[in-house]
Amino acid sequence: MPCSKMPGRLARIAVGISLSEAKLVPPYVSNLTRQAEYGPDPRAPNALRDCFTVFTDAVEQISNSLKQLGQLGSAGKAFVFQVSNVQTWMSAALTNEETCTDGFDDVPDCPVKTEVYDRVVKVKEFTSNALALVNSYVAREL
After folding, report:
1. Of 37, 90, 83, 36, which is closest to residue 60 (Cα–Cα)?
2. Which pLDDT score is estimated for 37?
3. DSSP codes of every residue in the chain
4. Which pLDDT belongs to residue 16?
5. I need a labelling partner for 3 at 20 to 30 A (CA). Which of 49, 68, 112, 139 fits?
6. Cβ neighbours of residue 23 under 8 Å, at least 6 residues apart?
């Protein structure tokens, strides 16, 4: 493979890995929501429900990004529009992932909070790295 194609391929691989990791969070959080006992404090179940919602959105945004990366045209207006979509969706996904962890700020420390937070931080790192590779690829192409 020519070196000139590597940045685009790396970006697609990174987005694909981010998608694979992000897809694991909604079912995990949903399972926790059903299994955990929280007592009278509604903050943890509310944070879990919110996390499920925003992560479902993040998965869709990362999926859209991966599809768009697979359909990139050659340089020009179409390319600029397509990569702009990818950058926007990946940034939105990262924001949604951040919203999940923010939702636990007021939740008292407990195993559920720690488990979800640790897992989401890992996914945020993958998404952040993928976005950085997309941005690097775009910078090389424009």
Report:
1. 90
2. 62
3. --GGGHHHHHHHHHHHHHHHHHHTHHHHHHHHHHH---TT--HHHHHHHHHHHHHHHHHHHHHHHHHHHHT--STTHHHHHHHHHHHHHHHHHHHHHHHHHHTTTTSPS-HHHHHHHHHHHHHHHHHHHHHHHHHHHHHHH-
4. 98
5. 68
6. 59
Give the span between the Cα atoms of 117 and 103, in whole angstroms: 10
Average pLDDT, the chain: 91
Q: Which domain does 80 fall in, by range?
A: 3-141
Average pLDDT per block of 10 residues along the chain, 142 residues long: 74 97 97 73 88 98 97 82 96 98 92 93 98 93 76
Give the Cα-Cα-Cα angle 91, 3, 142 (nearest 5 degrees): 45
Question: What's the predicted TM-score (pTM) here?
Answer: 0.92
Q: CA 103, CA 113: separation in Å to the nearest integer?
A: 10
Number of Cα atoms under 13 Å in the Cβ half of residue 97: 30
Query: CB-based burial of residue 80 (10 Å sphere; 0-12 exposed, 13-18 middle, 19+ buried)?
Result: middle
> How many domains are contained in the chain?
1
